[in-house]
Design goal:
Elements: H1 3-41, H2 44-57, H3 63-69
């Protein structure tokens, strides 16, 4: 196998990787665009239902912040890092 054949094989592998990455990025962008179009075309009732489903998925978005302020870790087991009730900052 000559150096030219090895170079060509390496370039083909790179081209395949780039093609795969491009296809993934294109699919992701297409999905995002489709989702956004669906949101824009939704009726007020559908928008309300989507918002309610989003709220139900994460009922307390401030739980982690509240736990840090109370000096507990995210699981409520005690200080995670830094200052806490028994550790000055």
């Amino acid at each position: 196998m000559s150096w030219f054949d090895r170079l060509r094989a390496a370039l083909r592998r790179e081209a395949a990787d780039v093609r795969e990455s491009w296809d993934e990025a294109t699919a992701k962008a297409d999905d995002a665009l489709t989702r956004r179009e669906r949101e824009l075309e939704a009726t007020p009732e559908e928008r309300l239902a989507a918002l309610q489903a989003e709220i139900e998925a994460d009922p307390d978005p401030f739980a982690e912040v509240r736990a840090k302020l109370e000096g507990k870790g995210p699981e409520g087991k005690g200080p995670e890092h830094g200052a806490g009730p028994d550790r000055p900052s």
